Amino acid sequence: MPIIYFTVTNDLNYDQRMIRICDSLVRAGYRVCLVGRITRKSIPLTKRAFQQKRIFCFFQKGIGFYVEYNLRLFFYLLFKKMDAICAIDLDSILPCFWVAKLKNKIKIYDAHELFCEMKEIVSRPVIYKIWKSIEKYTLPHFSHCYTVNQIIADEFQKMYGIQAAVIRSIAIKKEPAQMPNKERFILYQGAVNEGRCFETLIPAMKMIDSKLVICGDGNFMQQAKQLVIDYQLEQQVIFKGMLAPEELITFTQKAYIGITLFDSVGKSNYYSLANRFFDYLHNGTPQICINFPVYAELNKMHEVAVMVDDVSVQGLASAINQLLQDEALWLRLHEQCTTAAAAWNWQNEEQKLIEFYTKIFG
After folding, report:
1. pTM here?
2. Which architecture does CATH list for 183-343?
3. Which residues of the chain does CATH 3.40.50.2000 include?
4. Long-range contacts of 132-140 (CB under 8 A, 24+ apart)
5. Mean pLDDT on 136-152
6. In this predicted model, what pLDDT tens digit does every residue of 167-190 receive, in sequence order?
7. Which class does domain 3-170+346-361 fall in?
8. Per 3-state DSSP, what percentage of the chain is helix, strand, and coil (rounded to 5)?
């Protein structure tokens, strides 16, 4: 029974993508351990079918956190029995690379995005140079790799000659059940990070007769809260913080409209395929979605979103109001969500995941 360690830099309770992956591999007969971080605000770990480990760091953010976490992760992994180690994105790849090399174990890279092309990195030349040097140093040595869409896979092929498999991060298809009644609020779920258009989405709420519920946390949270104060939207924009997957789904089921927005700074945004795109449609929630290549292609197959090119305050207010006020449009998208969920679901992607690991271990 092969033993695989997965490494992330977030709190394990909220990582739906890794919970799905680890659960699937356990059912397929692998022994799995998911390693992440614990913060001063962390709640107790939810019991899972796989082993979990959270590492505490004195530094909670910035370069201090990354240095400390990677050192602690290296020494933790060094003394563990394993057959393979999988780095989730670039921020935990160095200890995985060094430990696998020292122990002569299989190295795997799971890329949810083009890490170096995220807005918060590509817009900071020194930070970009550091992460790009780490990428160039490590990635060419990872012969086993998978990512979330073909465009990103093609980028890895161009940059490093890596043949990356495509395994999308999609919600689990649920048994047909009575959907809770929709409430006329707008939902954003996911990382509250730079490049998610909060600078225009929050001011747009001044022109929208609905509430915006934000579920998540990230590096733009302080600025987002300040925008709410600046525009006097304290009663209209509600921050729920990080929610466990089981709690988050209740908001997604009830939401009338979901939000999937990015600005165009950095290839990571432009080539993205966010988990929330699928989470909304699996809960019958039409969405306002940025008209970037991957989303546009999917929406041509199943129209589940109003696609927008204009992410200005006026542009977003117009698109959201259209979906709020046009009942026939909303109903059409809502019905297509059900059709799309039958085609796009984790049960289908899981087969690709198992096939990927079967090729490695036999």
Report:
1. 0.93
2. 3-Layer(aba) Sandwich (3.40)
3. 3-170+346-361, 183-343
4. 134/90, 134/93, 134/94, 135/90, 138/90, 138/93, 138/94, 138/97, 139/93, 139/109
5. 96
6. 999 999 987 666 778 999 999 999
7. alpha beta
8. 50, 20, 30
